[in-house]
Design brief:
With about 325 residues, the chain is of the alpha/beta class. It has a domain of about 220 residues: NAD(P)-binding Rossmann-like Domain (Rossmann fold, 3-Layer(aba) Sandwich), CATH 3.40.50. It contains eleven helices and 13 strands. A seven-stranded parallel sheet has the order 3-2-1-4-5-6-10, with helices on both faces. Strands 7, 9, 11 and 13 form a four-stranded mixed sheet that branches. Strand 2, helix 2 and strand 3 form a beta-alpha-beta unit. Helix 1 packs parallel to helix 2 and helix 5 runs parallel beside helix 6. It is globular. The two termini are about 35 Å apart. The protein binds nicotinamide-adenine-dinucleotide (NAD).
């Protein structure tokens, strides 16, 4: 029988790409999203890509009665929980909002799952939970820490999941620590669409490429890295999406909980990303070197052995593919709403 998956935050950046991969893998998927950081038009776009109607419920994960109705109506085999707030800067200004949506939101989902006897959950964690003193490649067993309220909520959520699975051995969880998702679906119909000034490098560069911003700001070029700019691990959002399908297989077919990094296992410097985007858009993009930013570290990239061994997961797309699909999205889908 077809397995049914509840996707919270499924109209957002990573959720929408994961939806496409889940449909392609034969799952029946229901999306729940409150549209706080996404648009209803994504439903139509997903229908265009998948060739089937998108099953969508507009609801807030903080609304317990809406959630219990959703769990009462359908018998879900698993939940993939993307819904949450993710802007680091905003989390410093509004820490309580982040605790409420990210932490209380997860607890709500877990309690509803328990009531409905749903025992598999994939959770969006982040590389931000690694302590900044760790030396890359970052391995899952390394010390954790946080430097801002957003990171704190992700770490607390991981700890809540550890305690919930300890108390209920039936519950299986896939905790996925994403490195930097980038790029867009090859159709150009879905992609990252930040409402404000983007926090992340690639959406910022894409706005320089489209002429919205004048130049790319590079915070420091005197780090101990090959070209002096900061090095990070970027993963194509379509690769990240297939990682969720692999995680579901491990939970539903093998009954195995896991905590794994999802990255490429390779670092790209800010200059590497800028040069790749310049190739993708066909012109050299202007940049300015600024002083280092407080709290930034020289380099950070994933050890991907665990993802390979536990999930059989490997990435297929490189930085050129991330930039080309991002630029395609900026020129097509992102423009018309
Ligand atoms: N994008 C990244 O760089 C990154 C990195 C690591 C982890 N993550 C995590 O992955 C998850 C998805 O990230 P994304 O980049 O797709 O973000 P996104 O903002 O594009 O998607 C999140 C979706 O959740 C919805 N949402 C927010 N609050 C909600 C609520 N209370 N009830 C229902 N829906 C709600 C939003 O409308 C949005 O559609 C988040 O939990 C994020 O913290 C993202």
């Amino acid at each position: 029988m077809t397995q049914k998956i509840l996707l919270t935050g499924g109209l957002g950046y990573i959720g929408s790409h994961t939806y496409v991969e889940l449909i392609a893998a034969g799952y029946d998927v229901v999306i729940v999203d409150n549209l706080s950081n996404s648009k209803l038009s994504v439903c139509d776009r997903l229908a265009k890509i998948t060739g089937q109607e998108t099953s969508f419920i507009q609801a807030d994960i903080l609304d317990r009665s809406a959630l219990s109705q959703i769990f009462a109506k359908d018998a879900f085999d698993a939940v993939i929980h993307f819904a949450g707030l993710k802007a680091v800067g905003e989390s410093v200004e509004k820490p309580l909002d982040y605790m409420q949506v990210n932490v209380t939101g997860l607890v709500n989902i877990l309690q509803e799952m328990q009531t409905a006897n749903v025992n598999a959950l994939v959770f969006s964690s982040s590389a931000t939970v690694y302590d900044v003193s760790n030396v890359s490649p970052l391995k899952e067993g390394m010390p954790t820490g946080y430097t801002n309220p957003y990171g704190y909520t992700k770490l607390v959520c991981e700890q809540i999941l550890a305690q919930a699975t300890h108390a209920n051995p039936e519950l299986k969880t896939g905790i996925l620590r994403y490195f930097n998702p980038a790029g867009a679906h090859s159709s150009g119909l879905i992609g990252e669409d930040p409402r404000d000034i983007p926090n992340n490098l690639m959406p910022y560069i894409s706005r320089v490429a489209s002429g919205e911003y004048e130049f790319v700001r590079i915070w420091g070029d005197d780090y101990p890295t090959p070209d002096g700019t900061g090095v990070r691990d970027y993963i194509h959002v379509d690769d990240l999406a297939t990682g969720h399908v692999s995680s579901l297989h491990a939970l539903l077919d093998k009954g195995e909980s896991h905590l794994v990094n999802l990255g490429r296992g390779q670092g790209y410097s800010v200059m590497d990303v800028l040069n790749a985007y310049s190739r993708a858009c066909g012109r050299e993009l202007p940049h300015q070197i600024l002083p280092r930013r407080a709290g930034d570290i020289a380099q950070m990239y994933a050890d991907v052995e665990q993802a390979k061994q536990v999930l059989g997961f490997e990435v297929c797309r490189d930085m050129d593919a991330m930039c080309a699909t991002s630029w395609n999205w900026i020129n097509t889908g992102a423009k018309d709403g």
